[in-house]
Amino acid sequence: MARALMGDSDQQFVNDDRKIGTAPFAKHNGTGAFVEQGCGAVDLLDRCPQKANRPAFVMARLVQAAALTLALAPLLPQALRAQEVPLGFSWGVGETVDHDSNLTRANNQSPYPMISATSYATDLTGTLHETYGRQDISASATIARALYPVYRQYDITQQDIRGTLLSDLPLSAQATVTLARTSSMAHFADLGSPIRDVIYRNEANASADFPLAINWRAVLTGDDARTLNSATIFQTQDLNTTELDGGIRFQPSTGNHVDVLLRTVHGTYPNGSPSVFISPGYNDRGADLRADWTFTGASRLLGRAGYLERRNDDLFYLDTTSFPFQIRELNRNFSGPGFDLTYIWQITGASKLTAYGARQIGAAGDNSYLSAVTRTFRLAPAYQPRVMLDLEAYFEWSLRDYFSDVYSVVTGLPPGTTRRDNSHADGVSVFWNPRRWLQVKLDLRHEQRDSTIASWVYTDSNASLSLQCRF
Prior knowledge:
The protein has an 18-stranded antiparallel barrel. Strands 12-13 form a two-stranded antiparallel ribbon. The protein has helices at residues 2-5, 41-46, 55-72, 78-82, 404-411, and strands at residues 89-100, 117-132, 135-147, 156-169, 173-185, 198-213, 216-229, 239-250, 257-268, 281-296, 299-312, 316-319, 326-329, 334-348, 351-363, 371-386, 389-402, 420-435, 438-451, 458-470. The chain is mainly beta. It has a single domain (2-470), classed as Maltoporin, Chain A (Beta Barrel).
């Protein structure tokens, strides 16, 4: 979990910039101007002394952090240092130094400056796993605090708190209940000016499955989520969703399974307003084929493929591009196929290759109710040359097409304006485990986005060093 908060990709291997030390910037306000909130271009430049961003200064802090941790190693009790898999409760602490070359994801044509910044983050993690009869209880919590010595307006406390109850019921049925609360900085590459926005998400999920016949089970899942934005300008995009899934599962004795599910989702924008082109809500209907299948000891496929149809509530707006002005209906309905597949190939005992492909239709980004089709492909090789050393890399390509008619109306750009983003990202990670309780991680990343809209083009490089201790 700590690795996920420190900038690693999520379980679907999608490049995710919600890392500690990420600063957001706000979206185009739909009137041809950019909205700023408490941190204009002059303010950003005035608060940028050169000392904090000099390479020598950053390297000195990295060396000091590493030296302190290694120096304290002999002082810890031997039993504590040797414990690899703690029973019941375990905890950990980490420190991360991160340097970003383009914090605001700006370019030469942006109305705000390109700035580089360094952040220092500390995280504390605790996990608990207990079994009581047929009840299996697990919980985890990670709290992280990231500080920017220069740009203090981006300081943030992030959290990831989860609890799960797994219960074996009579007649071979199983039930799972999960509660989660997370908070993270909005994905700055999806916004349009330097505004700090923290996204809070509260979620409750319950699922059950019970046998129908040999190797066949019925599956039911319910999910309720509330997503809140801290920045006032984005609170019109707060979203509540309720989802119900149901279907059948084929699960042989090998443990593999294939699910055929129907799903329905109802979403509402409690603070939505026609003035910002947000409808009261929407309804999704879809069907999915989901699988988790191990073909051999070295080959595994997991993911989903299906079809989605969205119907938005009616939304009328005043069209000021024609005279006389007219009341029109904004049609944001869409439908289409989608998939999300991961293939894992264990080439040898020390090498592995992960391939990920996805076609996603719907909301684009953390802070966007615009609709787009996003196609993503990712290759992630991994190699372990020694027991204490792991090397990982990734290469990712992404193409995002926005629905042109909606995009031009919502953004206030000329009619017929289309937007297509072509992104490429790559990176390498080095994991060194000098002790069983200690991990040192070095991350180097680079990303570039080209777009038909010049203001959304950017290039960024990032380097981070983290020390993680687990007890």
